[in-house]
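Long-time lurker. I teach an intro course on protein structure, and each term I like to show students one example going from raw sequence to a predicted 3D structure in token notation. This year I'd like something fresh instead of my usual example. Would anyone be willing to generate the tokens for the chain below so I can use it in lecture? Attribution to the forum is fine with me.
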Amino acid sequence: MTLVADKKSHRPRSLAPARGSHHPLRAEFLRGFAPWTGAALLLVLVVGMAGTSAQWQGGWGETRQRLHLTAQLLGVPLALAAGGLQGARERRRRTEELLATAVRGPLARSLAAALPVACWVVAGHAVAAALVLLATALYATGDEPDLVTPLTDTVALASAVLVGHVVGRLLPRRLTAPLLAVAGYAVLGVMAYDSTGPLRELSPIGSKSVTDVPVWWQPAAMAVWTGGLAVAAVLGYAARRRFTALLPLAAATAAGALLVQTGDALWHTAPVARRQVCDTSTTPHICVNARYESLLPQVTDALSGLTGRLEGVQNLPVRFTDLPGESGPDEVDLPMLTPIGWSVVRGRLTDQRRYAWEAGMALYSRDQCNAAVDPEVAWTDDAVEHYLAPSPSERRFDELAAEGDKADRAELRARLAARARLLAMGEEERRAWLSAYFATARACDPSEVPAL
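-- Reply from a regular --
Happy to contribute to a lecture. Here you go:
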């Protein structure tokens, strides 16, 4: 260590920094309010996601949307409130006049107080996002994870801290932080449900469908929009040359204008959602959307009883299809696998028997008929339903009919007789009869439907 003589005291003075000295920001990062903010955000996001895990776990699109909504609707208000509390810290501690005499300028002091909170908020969100993505990876049914959306959420959260910090400095009151949280939640909520106005494009929440994906430049434009406004607020409040705030403000304005002008073209259906994977070994073929391709074996197994009884039957649709929009003339819609949390929970079909019944109903439904279905046709449909894939509630309905009045019991006897006649047929006879039946499965004229 180099020593020099002090001219006044003639004592040696060290030129090296004192041992154990740390950067001034170290205390801000490791102690006090900032780490607790990161922990609070992590807890809020994890609890919010865990409460609805059945509705997203296993689907990457559902996970992306749910994490995005939770980060925006719960995380951003918390980040605003945290920034507001940190901004009003000097007023609470009555140290404003003392800090005003410090060597560091207002911008440096503001950043020294705000950046630790922003960094811990980003860290809390990153850990929560990693846990959520891992939870979905354990039950993933297809598609692939989206890592861009969490990054844009990170920018929005950090920007919320900076904006809240500036508001806290300007309005250092006790109610500033809670009012910021309430206002942030209200504004984001209005923007989220404004599906027609320009606010939708400016909202960090963005899409409404799990199959919607943005154009490639939308995340960058959204980051410039939210980040530019936050940087402009900080520079406008604390910079020595406040006109420098015009540069990020201009960038944010340009990004916002681009988002608004592009409108609905910002979003399009993901390419994977327009494809399907099929099992062509069954009759009809079974196709599921490529977003859930790993469910195909489960769906095939659930429908194995139905497709096995239809083997060799003519006049059937070519396939069950699972694509957006209307099915083709030789196709029929597969029972819905979405939204996750109903038919599918954590990568598993919840009720295979009901799923098979729904698939069977899609083959011979007469919902398009305006008039009431003829009773004899209804008994025939019931017999086919009973043979191919009976309703899980069939026994309960039969018991209720048996306990009903004379008309209910008579109708039950007619249904049971029709079921018995179909079951009593030989294999070839039943296959021929079913072929004739499915040729008229959509017919509304009772004379066209083969009788039992």
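Some talking points for your students: The beta strands are 3-5, 12-14, 212-214, 267-269, 276-279, 285-289, 319-321, 331-333, 344-345, 348-349. The longest strand covers residues 285-289.
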